[in-house]
Amino acid sequence: MKKEANTIVNTLKAKKLRVTPQRFAVYANLLERTDHPTAEQILSDLNQNAPTSSQATVYSALQALREVGLVREVLLEPGICRYDANIEAHHHFRCRCCGVIEDLPWDTFESINLKGLRQGIKAERYEVIVEGICDRCE
Ligand SMILES: [Zn+2]
Ligand SMILES: [Zn+2]
Q1: Helical H segments across the chain, by residue range
Q2: pTM: predicted TM-score of the whole model, two decimal places
Q3: Which residues are CB-neighbours of 80 under 8 A, at least 6 positions away?
Q4: Greatest pairwise CA separation for the chain in angstroms
Q5: Ligand 2 ion local residues (Cβ < 5 A)
Q6: How far apart are the CA of 90 and the centre of ligand 1, in A?
Q7: HSE of 119 in the Cβ direction (CA atoms, 13 Å)?
Q8: Is the confidence at residue 64, as pLDDT, over 80?
Q9: Phi, psi of 29 (to 5 degrees)
Q10: CA geometry: angle at 42 spanning 39 and 48, to 5°?
Q11: How many CA atoms lie within 13 A of 6 on its CB side?
């Protein structure tokens, strides 16, 4: 999902986000990876070459990106918030050995019948989380 710098700038502008170096760096980092990193992992990645980012700036950049819908939170483990720049509808697989998280295309499953829900519940969205063992751990 690697994107050109000006594509990223235009995407941010199209969402009426002021383009700051931090927002750019955080979004570019997320677009390059598919491992659903935590804020801490993004921070350490960004600081590998030049330690210029702080935890607060990474968090506030993530917050801004999330508010305009360019980034979403992925909550697969209790108390751990991960981030995903893939905002298309998709499901997730999580390996319980190594913890790797992989995107599963939306059409992996036949559509789920939400009519089975009890009366009174209005479903708005859902996604499937598949847990198991990945091919590298088996
Ligand atoms: Zn694994
Ligand atoms: Zn994902």
Answers
A1: 5-14, 21-32, 39-46, 55-67
A2: 0.86
A3: 38
A4: 55
A5: 84, 86, 103
A6: 20
A7: 0
A8: yes
A9: -60, -45
A10: 140
A11: 0
Task: List, in sequence order, every residue forming a beta bridge with 102; answer none if it has no partner.
Answer: 93
Q: Does residue 1 have a pLDDT over 60?
A: no
Q: What's the CA-to-centroid distance between 6 and ligand 1, angstroms?
A: 36
Residue 118 Cα, ligand 2 centroid: separation in angstroms?
28
Tell me which ligand sits closest to the C-alpha of residue 93.
2
What pLDDT, on a 0 to 100 scale, did the predictor assign at position 115?
84
- Average pLDDT (55-70) is 96
Give helix 55-67 / helix 39-46 axis angle, nearest 10°.
120
Per-residue pLDDT at 24 exceeds 90 = yes
Q: Using the mean position of ligand 1's atoms as its centre, give its distance from the Cα of residue 8 in Å.
A: 32
One-letter amino acid of 54 = S
In angstroms, the first-to-last Cα distance of the chain is 28
Joined together, the tokens standing for residue 2 give 């690697």
Distance 35 CA to ligand 2 centre (A): 8
Mean pLDDT across the stretch 46-57?
Answer: 86
Instruction: Report the pLDDT value the prediction gives residue 70, as an integer from 0 to 100.
Output: 97
Rg value, the chain, Cα: 17
